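Re: Re: ligand-bound prediction request (bumping)

Still looking for help on this. To restate: I need the protein modeled with NAP bound, output as structure tokens. Inputs repeated here so nobody has to scroll up.
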Amino acid sequence: MSKSKDILNVGVLGLGTVGGGVVSALQSSPELFESRSGKHIKVVAACVRNPNKNRSAIAMNFPITSNPFDIVEDPKIDLVLELIGGVEPARRLVLTALNNGKNVVTANKALLAVHGEEIFRLAAEKNCFVGYEAAVAGGIPIIKVIREGLVANKITKLHGIINGTCNYILTGMEKHQSAFDDILIEAQQKGFAEEDPSFDIGGIDAAHKLTILASLLFKIPLELDKISVVGIADVELEDINYAKKLGYKIKHLAVAEKSENGVELRVGPALVPETDMLSKVDEEMNAIRLEGNLLGPLLMSGAGAGAGPTASSVLSDIVDSIRNSKLEWASVITNNSDNEPSSDLVITAEQTIASAFYYRLVASNEPGMLASITNILAANNISIEAVIQDEEGKKADRVPILIVTEKIKQRQADATRLALSEMPGIFSPVKQFRVK
Ligand SMILES: NC(=O)c1ccc[n+]([C@@H]2O[C@H](COP(=O)([O-])OP(=O)(O)OC[C@H]3O[C@@H](n4cnc5c(N)ncnc54)[C@H](OP(=O)(O)O)[C@@H]3O)[C@@H](O)[C@H]2O)c1
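Reply:
Sorry for the wait, this slipped through. Here it is.
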């Protein structure tokens, strides 16, 4: 621990997008952080993979190492910023820092979603602070809002656009009338998608974030494997355009909702009515909509990634660590603490909350097809809200058909998709998305 009470000695693991942004913000206005926290926040050492890389955005006026244990075992460091990402060695480094009595701030959702219980248990045991505001929605201070601003509310529902890459791609497909693959390449060129985008477009990144949010909202364990995860690779330009004709936008939504059986968690593409504010959150922006029993609905929107927005959240955690909110923070996400009992809620494996569903199918152009399709829906006890046979999209032998159902359960929806796919005269695949 630092000798001076007025200095917080910080060791930084990683000087990439986030780490570079944090150090640059600290260096550009040290007085601001000192006046707001009551301490001089001083970067005393950093670790990177390649110490020879040019990092022109920051003044390298501190020692740099490629051995992260130099940081987490350095007795003069008070707080460790874990900004390297991934599970290992990040997990070992965070545990070592906590074992050495250091507070930790991390932006690493992949780490917390899988090893959060272990990390928060150790933090509580060592009476250390673990801040993770930047891990869930980049610059949107959602953790603080849930923990502090909404403390009087019982939250029953969360809908979020929490993956900027998915949102950028879906928005770009509509705006440029381009195919998924073309927009993905553009997103990679502009830095809105990783070189390997599988975690983002496959929905895993959103699932990591939802795991953390749901644990915080409902006092349930961090159980990533209980989330229903669907990515956006199945969304085609036709779906986006048909959704628009029907009055919707397709968004990749993270949903946490209480049902009579427990909590349902899912991420996946959904048709959002154009009248809903979430449908207006475009490009790489994130948004989270919560419903509290006292407040009613609350929507927060802002940048979910990038150096500045993420640094904003990391720095808010550093200031919080100084302002002494450590025990509450450390314990709130886990169900293993003494002062935050876990709820009786369980995450239900089955999605039982009903919603409308959208189907897009291509049927052979022969009499009686529409009647056969509606018979299948009727056989599955499904009423139809809208059905459109797209005469403009008709080809010599086939015609696209769109259906929006009344509210049904996931089980019914899946059975219907299967029955439609197996129907003679239907060309695969049959598309199926939820309607919010
Ligand atoms: N980027 C965002 O907008 C954003 C938003 C929210 C949360 N996050 C999270 O923040 C974390 C960092 O993301 P980022 O985008 O800043 O990543 P990044 O740009 O790839 O930076 C990673 C940094 O960590 C260093 N590093 C990686 N592995 C290391 C190792 N084994 N030992 C020592 N140093 C190592 C790298 O060194 P070199 O520079 O030498 O390669 C680099 O400085 C991740 O957990 C990410 O999920 C990022």
